[in-house]
């Protein structure tokens, strides 16, 4: 099945969950599950949320990580907050500032979640494949972040 069609279907499902589930922790868990279960190259799928000026791990599916808290600017996750932008890393071994969660991880995408002009967290996806993420993944995950943002604004 074409990637865009899969992503469009997943957006419908995530948007539906946003309307059905009131508890945010439960909703984040459902988003992670939908992404992890339906995109085979999303090998670590999770959230980090801003708390007291640093990123704190939220719900995730994947191998355990020792990075439960990340300072702004540190690693790809912290850099996405510092630069206020989505970051795609095709080869994590080429990153000077990379925080390795798993030796199997080859590439990563981090998408900030904005609410009222502030980054409140981010979607973090690791893949065991080199250069796994492209513009379609970026657009898709930014739309997921928009759904979350709209839900939090209510």
Automatic annotation (TrEMBL):
Pfam families: GAF. GO terms for cellular component: cytosol. Residues 55-150 form the GAF domain. One of its GO terms (molecular function) is L-methionine-(R)-S-oxide reductase activity. Belongs to the free Met sulfoxide reductase family. This is GAF domain-containing protein. The lineage of its organism: Bacteria, Bacillati, Bacillota, Clostridia, Thermoanaerobacterales.
